[in-house]
Amino acid sequence: MPITKYYPFEPEQAPLEYRGVPEINPHLCVGCGACVNVCPPDALIKIDDYENGTRKIVLDIGRCIRCARCEEVCPTRAIRLTREFEAASNDRICHVEIVELKLAKCRECGKYVDYTERQLQKVLSLIPPGILEFDRIREKLPLCRECKRLLTVVNATKFEEEMRE
Amino acid sequence: MLFALLFIIASIIGLIKREQVKIVGLLSALASLALVVEALSGIDATYSILGLEFAFMTDTISRYFCILVGISGLAVSLYTAEYMEPRHLNLAAYSVFILSMALIVLSRDFLEFIIFWELMTIASYVLIVTYYDNTETKKASIIYLVAMHAFNTAPLLLAIGAIYSQFGTLDYSTLQGVYVPTWVIWAFLLGFISKAGIFPVHFWLPEAHPVAPSNVSALLSGTMLKMAIYGMIRVVELFPGSEAIARTMVVLAILTIAIGAIMALVQKDIKRLMAYSSVDNMGYLFLALGAYIMLDRVLKKIAFLALLLHAFNHLVFKNLLFMLSGNVLHATGRKDLELRGLGKKMPFTAVMSVVGILSVSAVPPLNGFISKWLIYQATFLSKDPLLVGGGVISLFASALTLAAYIKIYRIFTGEPNVEAHEAAPLMLAGEAILAFLCVVAGIFPGIIARIINVDVGNPWLISIGGATFNALLFAGTLCSFIIAAAIALPTKKNLDAPWTTGEPVDEFEQKPEHMFTPIAKFGKKLSFIGERIEERFSSFERWYSSKDLGYLDEIMFMPVIKLIEGTSYVIKELSKNLNALLAVTFLVLFTIVLTMAVLAGVI
Amino acid sequence: MELLGAIVAPFLPPLLDGVARKVKALIQNRMGPSIFQTWYDIITLLSMEPTLPTGSLAFRLAPYIALASALCMAFMLPYGSNSIINFGGDLIAFIYVFTLFSAALVFGALSVENSYSHAGANRELTLSLVFKPLFTITIGIFALKTGSLSITQIAHSISPSLSIVGAYLLLLYVAYVEAGFIPYDIAEAETEILEGPLSEYSGRLLGLLKWALQIKRFAMIWLFASFVTLPIAEGVFAFVLQMMVFLLAYLLMVTYESLNARYRLDQAMNQGMKGIVIGAVLTIIAWLGW
Amino acid sequence: MIREFEEKFGPTLEKKVIAKNKVLYTLMVRREDFINMTKYILNRPNTRLFTMVGMDERNTEESFSVTYWFLDWKAQEVIGIRLYVPEEEPSFPSVGAIHKGAIWFEREVQDLLGLEAEGLPDPRRLILPDDWPEGVYPLREDFQYYHSPMGTRNYPYREPKNNSTVHPMGPYHVALDEPAHFRLFVKGEEIVDVDYRGFYSHRGIEKLARGRLNYNQVIFIAERVCGICGFAHSIAYAQAVEEAAKIEIPDRARYIRTILLEIERLHSHLLWIGVAAHLTGFDTGFMRSWLIREKVMELAERLTGNRKTYGLALVGGVRRDLLDYRKSLILETINKLRGEVNELVDMLLATKSFIKRCEGIGVLSKEKAREWDTAGPLARASGIDYDTRRDLPYAAYDELSFNVPVYKEGDVLARALVRIDEVKESISLLEQAVDAIPGGPVMAEFNEIPSWREGISAVEAPRGENTHYVMTGEINRIYRWRVKAPTYNNLQAVSDMLRGYTIGDAPLIVASIDPCYSCTERVQVVDIESGKAKVISFGGMGTCP
C-alpha cells in the first residue's frame, strides 16, 4: 500500500521521454556551434584557438537547464539528452565536457580558418554532385576568408579582362 | 518579656530622633529575635499597669503565632534598617506595630485582645500613610481606616460587650466551653473576615497594600492578616456551636480564592498583584479553618496542621515577595510590569524572586506545596461536596497564581530597558533569611510541625492519617536527576543573538498585559453583565421618577423607590472606587453566596 | 517489577514515538522512517553543542528541570502494584510535578527575547489554566467515590458506578490533551509559532526537552493505564496488563491524532470549558451516590 | 467601454489600435485630466487595472513613458493610456492615491526608472535591495545588466503603534515556501497591523531579457519566473509576441497549450490543498492530496519530458506533438484522478477540525478585493466573477465549455472550495480538449518579427491573471517585456486580510492566496542579518564569454 520507495538505496529509472543530462558524442560532432547559438543559459561555449588550430565545444552541465534546444538544432545529432538525472558530483570539473576538434587550414596562406575540417567534409558531402559550379565551390571552400576575397577579386579581374578582349 | 522592653525602647528612640532608621531597625530585629527565643521557652507573666490587669501566657497556638510574628519581625526589621524613609511618626509606629501584634497573640483575655488590636490598627494606619503626599495614598488610607473600624472593630466590640454582659468576665480560661448566642459568633466572623480580606469585605486590601512602603506592606499582608486567623481560631476553640458559621466561611473562602486569583491575573502593577494574591491565600486559610470545624477525627487533625503550616508558609513567601518588590521599587522607582532585564544588575533579587514565585505557586520542592498538599488532603477526602468543590477551585487558583507570577519573572529577563542597582546588603540579608526558610520548610516540614507538637514522624516527612509525603526523598530524587543530567550532558557557553527570522527587529517580545487574553476576556464578560444590571436599576429609577403620581406616590411607592435608588447609588458608589469588575462580582456572586449558603445550610 | 519499570520509563517513550510515526505513515500510505528514528534524532541532538541566545541561567537550566520532573512523574506511577520511588506521593503531588514541568518550560521560554517563544509560553500557561482544573475535577470524583488520593488505594477500592465510568472517560480525555497530541499540541505548534517554547533551543538542550516531552506523554497515558488495570490485577500480571492497555490506548490516540487538524487557542479553550461543565455534572452525580 | 471613453476624452488623445478591441491612447498635452480619465474608467462596474508599464524611450521618443492598461472584463475590451514623462522633470500624477491597486506599480516605477509619482501614499522602496545606492535605476537604458553597485543598508520599517509589539513572519519562516517578510504588529496573539517587505527573489529578468536574450531564449526565462505556474507565464509571453508580430498559431498548437495549462492548474491546486492541510497540522490531508498530485506530475513528465518546466512552448506554437499513445495516457490518468479527487474532497470536508480552522478567518470583502485588483481564486472567493479564460479567451478556451465557481464569504474555506471546484472543472476541460484536438502542424512559419510593435496578453494561471506586455525591438531582440503575476496584486490585499486574526492563523491566511513570491522577483543575494552582501558576478562560471 505505501507508494514511497527507499530511493537512494533502490535505483530509480526515469521514464523514456525524460529530458535528462545532455551528452556530446565526439565522433559525430562537427564543431559547427549551432547548439552554442541556441543555448539560452550559455551552457555550451565555443572556444577557437587559432595558434594551435583547435576548436573546443565546452558543455557545462552545471549551467544547462535541459531544454533540449541543442538536440533539436544539431545537424549531426551529436548532442543528445540522456535519461540520466543524477548530476550531483563533489567536484565542479566532472560537470564540464569538452570536445576538441582540429580547425581546417587555409590551402593558400596556411592560416587556420574559423571552421573545422569535419565541418568542411560535412558541407562537401551535403552538396549534391549534380550542382552546376560544383568544382568551383569545391575549390573555394577550404580557403580562409582573406584568400577567398583575394580569389573572388582575382576571378573578377580575370573575368573583366576576358570581357575586354 | 524582654522583647516588649526592647520594642518600647526602639519606638521611643524613633519618637525622639526621627532619622535614626538604622538603630530602630536593628533594635526591632533584636527584639523580634528575643521574642522568638522567649516564645520557644514559653512566656507566663502578669502585669498591672494603671490598675488594669494584663496577663500574658503562651499555650500551643499563641506560642506558634508568637514565633511567626518574631520571624517576620526579624526579617522585615533587617530590611527596614536599610529601606525605611523616616517621615513623621512612622519609625515609632513601626516597632509599636510589631509589639502590638506580639501582645495580641500573648493576651489571655478579650479586653487585652481588643486593646492591642486597636493599637495595631492605629499603628498600621500611621505606617500606611507614610507617603501621604500622593492622592492615591490618602484615598486608600481613608478606605482602610473606615473599613477597619466599620466592619472590623465594631462587630468585635459588640461581641465582646455581649459576652461581658452575659458572663461578667472576659478571661479565656473561664470562658472555655461556654454556650454563647450564635449572633455573637457571627459578629466575630464578620470582624475577622474583614480584617483578613475575605470576599465581601476585601476591597480595602488591594487599595492599602500597594500604597504602603514595601516593608510595611510585607508586614501588613504577611503578619497582620495572620492575626485575624489567630482571633478566629481562638473564638472557634473557646465557643462550641461554631458549626453554623463553618459552611458560610467555606463558601466565602472559595469565592475569595477564585476572585483573588482572577484579579491577580489581570493586574498591571506588581504590588497590587501581590495584594490580590494575599487575598487569594487568605481564602486558603479560611477554607482550611472551615474544614477544621466541619471535619472530625483524623481529617480534623490534617486540617489543623494544614491551617498552621499554610499560615507559616504564606507569611514567609509573602514577606519575601513584598520585600523583593521593594528592592525593585527602590532601585528603579517603578513598580509596573514594563520593566525588563533587571536580572543583569540585580542577580540576588532575581534568584530570590524565582524562589518566591515557585513557592507561592506551590511548586513541589519548595514550602508552598506542603501546606497546599495538606489542604487538598483535608478537602478532597472529606466526602463533603462543598469541601471537594473548594479543593478543586483552589487547585484551579494555584494554576492562576503561577500564571500571574510568571509576569513578575518577566521583569528580570531580556535586555535591560531601565538602569537599576542591586539592593543594599542588609536588605538582601533579610530576604535571604526568608528564602532559606522557604527552602528548608519545603524539604523538612516536620520541624515546623513539631513546634505545634503535632507528631509527624521524622522531620523530613508529613504522615498523619494515612497520607504520607516524604518531602526530602522527593526533593532528593528531583535534584539527583537534575545534577545527573547536568553532569552527563553539560553545555558550554557560546552566545548568539536570538533569531528574528531574517529581518532585524527591536521590539521582539510579547508584553505581559497581552498575555492570557482568553482569561482576561472572561473577566471582561463578567464586568459587562454587571454594567447591564446596574444600568437597568438606574433606568427603572429614572422611569419611575418621570411619572408623577402625586399623593399616592408619597406613602406607597416613594419608600420602595428610595430603596431601589439607594441600592443603585450604592452600587454606583462601590463601582466607582472599585473597578467595574469588582462591583459586578460583588453583586452577581453575592446572590450566589446567599443561595449556596441556604442550600448548604439546608443539606 | 519496579526495576523493570525503572528501565521502561525513561527508555521506552522515544521508541513508542517511533512506532507512532510508523503508524501515521501507514495511514498516509507512505513508508515512514524506522521505529528507532526518534532515538536517532535524540542521540544526534544530545551529541551536538547548543548555541545559547541569552546568558540567563534559567534558559540553560529549564531543560534539565523539565527532564527531572518528567522522570519524577514517571517514577511516581505504579508499575505492577507499587511505584519505583514511593515517597507517598499521590495524585496531588502528580499534578504539581506536572505543573513544575510546564513551569520549567515556561521559565525557559520567557527568559529569552523571542516573541515566538513568548507566544508558546503564553499558550502553554493558558491551556494549563483550563485543563489542569479538568484534571483536578476527575481526581475529585475519584476521591469522592473512594475516599483516598493515592493511586494504589483508589485503584483497590473502586466500585463500578455511573460517575466512575464518566471519570474514566474524562481521565482518558485529559491524558490525550496533556500528552500533547495533534488537536491539542497548540503550545508546540511548529507551523504556527516555530515549536513555541522550544524555538530558541538547539543541540543538547533541545534533545533533553524532546526526550522530556516524550516521557511526559508516556507518564500521562501510563497513569490512565494503571487506573484501568490496578483494580483487577496484582503484581506481574498487573504490569503486563498495564503494558497492554497502555499500548492499546497509545495506538488509538495516534490514529485519532492523524485524522485531525490542530485547534486554535480559543477553540481548545471552549473544548476545555465544555469538559469542566461535564466534570461538574459528574461530581454532582458522584456526590448523589451513583 | 472604448466607444464611451472616446466620446468623452477622444479629441485630446492620439489613438493606436493594438489588436481587436485593444486600443492604446497616448496623452501628449493637458496631463491634469489624466487622473479623471483613470477615475472615469475605474468607476465603471467591471473594470480593473490590468497592468502598468514604465518604459525608457529616451532614444526613440526622448522621454520616459508610463502606460496604464485597463480591462473591462464584461465588455472584453482593453484600454491603454500612455503618459510621456520628460527626462528633466521625471514626475507624473499618482493613480495610487485614488486606486489602491496601483500603489505597487508606481513604487516599482519609482525604484526601477526613477519616475516620481506625486501623491503616492507609501513612497518607500519596493523592489530594490536595501543597500542599492540612491539614484541608480536598473531599467534605464544606460545601466548595463551585469552591473551590481553596492551602497549602505537602511530600510525604514513602520514603528509599532500604541504599544503593540513586532512579531516578524520573516524571510525564513516554516510556513512561507519562499522568502517574504510580514511584519505583524501584534497585541499578544491578535494582529493589529501588518507591514510587508518583499521582493527577496527579484532576479531582474526584464533587464536580462532586454540585455542578452533573443525571442526564443526569453521564453525559457519566462517559464522559470514561477516555480509552479511556469508554463502559464511562457504561454502569456508567447501570445504577447505573437500578437505584436501578428502571427497566427495553428489550431493543434492552441489545443496542446490548453491541455498543458489545465494539467498545470491541476497540480498547482492539489499542491495548495496539501499545503493548507499541512499548515493546520492535518498531515494526512497533506499526504493524500500530494499522493494524487504525483499522478498528474508523472503524466506531465511522460508528455513533456519534465515534471514541472515543460519547455514545450515557443513563439509561434509548440515544439513537440502529443502522439497517440500520449493521448490514451491522459485519458487513463484523468479517469483515475476523478475518483480519487472526489474521495479526497469528501475526506477534507468531513474533518470538522480542519474546516473549523479554515472557516471565518482572513475574510476579504468584495469592495476591498476589487480595490486591490485581486485576481484568481482569491477574487472569485470574494464574489468577483472574473476569469481570464472565459472573459479574455485565448488558446482553445473559446471552443471549450466550462463554468467558473464564485463564492461570497471570502474566507479561507471559500478559497479552498473555489480551488476544489476548479480542479473538477480542469478535469472535464482536459477531457473535452483531448477529444476535440484537431490535426495539422504544431508550429507556424513566420520570418522576421517586426520591430517597435506592442503586444499585451493575459493567461489565467492557477493563482490568477498573468499579464505580459511586450514591445519588440531590432535584431531579433525584445525592447521591453513587462511581467505582472497575480500574486503582485493579491499580496497587497494580505495586510487587510490579516488584521484582527491571531498569529496562529497568519500562516494559513498568507498561504490562502497561494503566494508565488518568485513571480515578483529580486536582484541580489544579500545576507541581510549580518549586512554582508554576496554579489553573484555573472561571469562567475568562468565559461561565460
Any overview of this molecule?
The complex is a heterotetramer of chains A (165), B (603), C (290) and D (545). Chain A has a single domain, classed as 2-Layer Sandwich (Alpha-Beta Plaits), CATH 3.30.70.20. Chain A is 28% helix and 21% strand. Chain A has helices spanning 34-38, 69-73, 117-126, 134-140, 145-164; strands at residues 22-24, 44-49, 54-60, 79-81, 96-105, 112-116. Chain A is elongated. The mean pLDDT of chain A is 85. Chain B is mainly alpha-helical. Helix content of chain B is 74%, strand content 3%. In chain B, the strands form 2 sheets. In chain B, strands 1-2 form a two-stranded antiparallel sheet. In chain B, strands 3-4 form a two-stranded antiparallel sheet. The radius of gyration of chain B is 25 Å and the shape is globular. The two termini of chain B are 49 Å apart. Chain C has 290 residues and is an all-alpha fold. In chain C, α1 (2-27) crosses α9, α1 packs parallel to α10 (235-257) and α4 runs antiparallel to α5. Helices cover 72% and strands 1% of the residues of chain C. Chain C has 11 helices and 2 strands. Chain C has a two-stranded antiparallel sheet with strand order 1-2. Chain C is globular and about 55 Å long. In chain C, a hairpin with a 2-residue loop joins β1 and β2. The two termini of chain C are 35 Å apart. Chain D is α+β, with helices and mostly antiparallel strands. Chain D has a 5-stranded mixed beta sheet. Chain D has a 3-stranded antiparallel beta sheet with strand order 8-9-10. In chain D, strands 13-14-15 form a 3-stranded antiparallel beta sheet. Chains in contact: A-C, A-D, B-C, B-D, C-D. Chains B and C meet through α16, α17, β4, α20 and α21 of B and α3, α4, α5, α9 and α11 of C.
Determine Rg of chain A (CA atoms, Å): 22 Å
Oligomer: heterotetramer
The count of helical stretches of chain D stands at 17
Read across the widest sheet of chain D, the strand sequence of neighbours is 1-2-5-4-3
* Number of separate domains of chain A: 1
Structural class of chain D: alpha+beta
Helical coverage of chain D, percent range? 25-40%
Which regions of chain A are unreliable across 5 or more consecutive residues at pLDDT < 50? none
Mind describing the biggest β-sheet of chain A?
4 strands, antiparallel
User: pLDDT below 50 for ≥5 consecutive residues: which ranges of chain D?
Assistant: 521-545
Distance between the termini of chain D: 51 Å
Strand content of chain A: 15-25%
CATH names the topology of chain A as Alpha-Beta Plaits
CATH C-level class of chain A is Alpha Beta
The first-to-last residue Cα distance of chain A is 94 Å
**Number of H- or I-type helical stretches of chain A:** 5
